[in-house]
Fold this sequence. Notes:
Blueprint: H1 15-90, H2 93-124, H3 129-141, H4 150-154
Amino acid sequence: MVKVARTDARSGGAGGAGLFNVVSVVILIVGVLVIGIAAALLARTLAAAQSIDKKAQTIAVNAGKINVATDSVTELNRTHELASSILSSTKPLQDLLNTIDATARDIADLAKSIDATAGTIKATAGTDQRDGYHDQQHRYQNQQPCRDDQRHHAGHGITGSEIPCTG
């Protein structure tokens, strides 16, 4: 065993000195063991902290990638909001569109009727167009004096001498 030299006032006596030396050595050994255990625990804690730091860095990198990926979702949400706004803005136009559609159908029906009437008129007027034209013109003009204008009648192939004037 190691002897430790005492420097205190009790070092002169032989009985208490041995016990003090043993207690001091035990305390010293216990202290060294506690410091060793604390150092070992500190080393384990440091290793765990470094492992956690590496994992945290990996998580941070992946979170950045996820953040970039969620930008598309954010833009999609914004696009959805814009589309909803456009849709709600166009809903009042539906009544106007229905009115325009109904009017267009009425016009189409009227055009068919006019076309049918024009076909009937064409079929009826197909015999002698010159006489029929001027008879209709004179009936239309009713009480207006007869126009003996060469340019007016020449366009229809009629000379002034062929026109009977009733006016």
